[in-house]
Amino acid sequence: MLNPKAELEQHVNQFRNRLYEFEKEMDYEFSVDEWRYLLEHGLNSLLSTRKDEQKMISNVSIRTKKRPSRWKLSSGVVYAIPLPRLGGYGYAEMRVSKDENHETGKLEFMDYIQYYNLRTEKVLTLHELDRKNPESCIVIRTGYYGIKEGEWIVLGKRHREEGTFLTPLFFDTLESNEEEYFITKGLWGARVFVNEKEAKAVINPYGSSGDVAAVYEYEERLKEINDNLD
User: Fold this and answer.
1) Backbone region of residue 223 per phi and psi (left: phi > 0; alpha: psi in -120 to 50; beta: other values)
2) Most buried in the list 10, 45, 51, 71, measured by CB within 10 Å?
3) Order of strands across the sheet that contains 77-82
4) 75 near 54, Cβ under 8 Å?
């Protein structure tokens, strides 16, 4: 069962898809002022059908602001990624978690790229991607170069509530001894030493990767779990 935040998150994204479908049916992109009018009068019309509802909406106010320069790097932004070796496109989303840094004891935000188990020949819209609902296949702390330079295609932004993305587990080996495996929660969690099998079952690599190296690792993961990509 979804927690209240996750349920709210899901409802907002479902509502966004309904608005997308409505615009598609109308073959028209409504302005912000037009949406304000539609929401105010549409909601009042809906409330009028409820037998015990005694209230009505007097006004819907929408304030706008300029998108921040780092908008493309915020939680919930979804990307289509050109796959250099497999061809076509893969998909990923920026996710942000909040957890304790075991060295400082402070709560810190940590951002990761969550890559999805999906490859397509043509770029999907965010709405089409939501309909396919692919599962996450690997999480990597990834550099931003491809996003900032426009190599990754921004499809849009899903609504994400703070705290609905749990800090992922990662695995690695010690630099001084590559036979010593450990698992850690996030980048700054305490290291738990385990055997090789337990470590590799975590899938997600510890540390940070440049976007090119991360995409190569993503491609390898896609090949590993999809027989038709060999």
Assistant:
1) alpha
2) 10
3) 153-157, 77-82, 89-100, 107-120, 136-142, 208-209
4) no
Q: Is residue 33 part of a domain?
A: no
Write out residues in the chain with pLDDT < 50, as ranges.
none
Report the pLDDT value the prediction gives residue 53, as an integer from 0 to 100.
81
**3 state SS of 122:** coil
Number of domains in the chain: 1
Q: Which domain holds residue 165?
A: 71-229
Domain-embedded: residue 58: no
From the number of C-beta atoms within 10 Å of its C-beta (0-12, 13-18, 19+), residue 219 rates as buried
| Amino acid at site 147 | I
**Using CA of residue 74, residue 75, residue 76, residue 79, what is the dihedral sign?**
positive
Copy the structure tokens of residue 27. Answer: 């073959």
Are 34 and 22 in contact by the 8 Å Cβ rule? The answer is: no
